[in-house]
From TrEMBL:
PANTHER family: NAD(P)-BINDING DOMAIN-CONTAINING PROTEIN-RELATED, PROTEIN YEEZ. GO terms for cellular component: cytoplasm. This is NAD-dependent nucleoside diphosphate-sugar epimerase-dehydratase protein. Signal peptide: none annotated. CDD domains: SDR_a4. It comes from the Bacteria. GO terms for molecular function: aldehyde dehydrogenase (NAD+) activity. InterPro entries: NAD(P)-bd_dom_sf (IPR036291), NAD(P)-dependent_oxidoreduct (IPR051783).
Amino acid sequence: MHSLIIGCGDTGVRVAARAVAAGDTVTGVVRSEPSAAKVRAVGAHALRVDLDADVLDLPACDRLFYFAPPQREGDTDTRMARVLHAIDSVPTYTVYISTSGVYGDCGDAWVDETRPVNAESERAKRRVDAERQMLEFSPQARVLRAPGIYGPNRLPVERVQEGTPILNDTDGGWSNRIHIDDLATIAWLAGTQALTHNIYNASDGHPTGLGVYYDMLADMLGVSPPPRISWAEAEQRFSAMRLSFLRESRRLSNQRLRDDMGYELAFADFHDGLAASLKAEPD
């Protein structure tokens, strides 16, 4: 079997390692030489390509893992359109990592995969378009809607150590997360199993207020919890992108994923996920 990973970054390298261990021939598509070196380090082939500008000559594959984000402007994912046009035949397995942002703001509601998409930001609208493209390209494709991804070197350590304020709990909503190792395993399982559904919430299933996450990280780092600020002050201090994330609240259910894949997350409790991530980070 040949696995082709488009956008072989942190998550992709982890999937590549799993594919290599399973005996696949693996090609990871990256843009930079440092990224290519990480792909080669796990035993995979690295293909350096600019997905927006280069002529795309992509190898045939049995498993397609598409992890590249859309370009930064517009309502459609033109990057994905170029890639899918360059693939000659539909792979047996296709996996796309999307975002839970396609649901928009859901307040306190629990959200499963039957909820209609309601993308509010241009960024999320591009993801909705990407999901549509992928499912039209391959009706058996598996779309993984991921929330915030955390793991080694993906924690707001400096922000917490510097005492950067966060939005207070009364003004903030629910946040969701997934450890990067769990996401990689879920993606690999989606690319190797016959599954009942096309769309899965790839979340740890334990939403919390954002402050709970930051306070726990601060405690593990041995520093004071981040100070809280109001929404009015946040609008003055935070970037437009950060505010767009904070405006949305939802509680993601991962029941479908656990039922269909039979996967028990390694880090369903983000306390353990944070501890493991900090332990894995270099001093």
